[in-house]
Specification:
Layout: E1 5-10, H1 25-43, E2 48-53, E3 60-63
Parallel strand pairs: 1-2
Antiparallel strand pairs: 2-3
Amino acid sequence: MPLEAVVVVMDNSEFNRNGDFAPSRWESQQDAANNICDVKLNQNPENTLGIMSMAGTRVDMKLT
């Protein structure tokens, strides 16, 4: 597998953190992001993963 760079964009707005569904939208989004990260790192441990949040007045980005 080739080396990849992946950015996972997370919506952490108030609407997304609403607990109107079980599991909550935020928990479902976290599970999906964890699955994507696990698969990408298992394909090649040198892959680069980033997480970016999308709520508020600024963008917050975390890199491995």
